[in-house]
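Batch queue: ligand-bound targets. Current item pairs a single chain with magnesium ion. No template structures supplied; prediction is de novo from sequence plus SMILES. Inputs echoed for audit trail.
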Amino acid sequence: MTSTTAASPVLEIHDLRVDFRLAATTVHAVRGVSFSVAPGETLAVVGESGSGKSATALSALRLNPEPPCVYAGGHILLDGKDLLTRGERELGRIRGADLSMIFQDPMTSLDPLQRIGSQVAEVLRHHGGHSRAEARAAALSALDEVGIPDPERRYRQYPHELSGGLRQRVMIAAALVARPRVLIADEPTTALDVTVQRQILDLLVRLQQRHGMAVVLITHDLGVVAETADRVVVMHRGEAVETGDVHDVFARPEDPYTRRLLDATPRLETAG
Ligand SMILES: Nc1ncnc2c1ncn2[C@@H]1O[C@H](COP(=O)(O)OP(=O)(O)OP(=O)(O)O)[C@@H](O)[C@H]1O
Ligand SMILES: [Mg+2]
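Prediction returned. Tokens below.
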């Protein structure tokens, strides 16, 4: 977490429009969303279920299933270059290396049949330039960095041998081992116990500070936003209804939907 940063944005989303063309109807999941995030900055995206948070996040790596997804408009610029116009091969080079994602459920993102260490090492192998031994060493140090005890032993284990919290740490290690400049975390702690959630969020904040990443954090939890984010985007029905500095938006919400959202979270007021 930093105060408002003057650095220029690394990821910019301009007027993004995402449709899902289904048999009977078209869902306009994202209807003209714009925001940007700079190195060292945490941008939170909040809003009720179905408001288009994940569809927006997945667009940054073109990970919405096509079909039914159609990118109906807008631009997603990574260092000024539009990701929506890249081919699959170039996106494959960008995913995990320049821009990484962490999802809610590590069980669906980890391969159950592969040892966790190789899954982390594979990210580096995929992007080339690392021998097997180098990738293994980097994966071990990534497991260590995310707080996995006894990484040598854990390296050889399979996902089902780990607790949910440890699995999420493995996902974070895999997301960060190639040192991406942007990390998008979509509800990264929702599946975890409250105490473990806390630890994982603290870990993300520490890693972000150490590596100066830009972080986009999608969450339902406004308490988490207040504690970890610099700026916040409030989404409602596919639109970004309010964007601003977290403290300003929480202290003086301008949009009626933001006000409703804050009113529904009394804990925040007592937390000050
Ligand atoms: N693969 C898909 N196929 C069809 N419709 C989809 C698909 N993915 C998302 N949608 C629709 O797009 C809209 C936005 O969904 P999205 O997953 O982005 O919401 P969200 O804000 O992430 O919600 P949640 O908080 O529940 O994760 C919803 O109406 C959803 O049903
Ligand atoms: Mg979602």
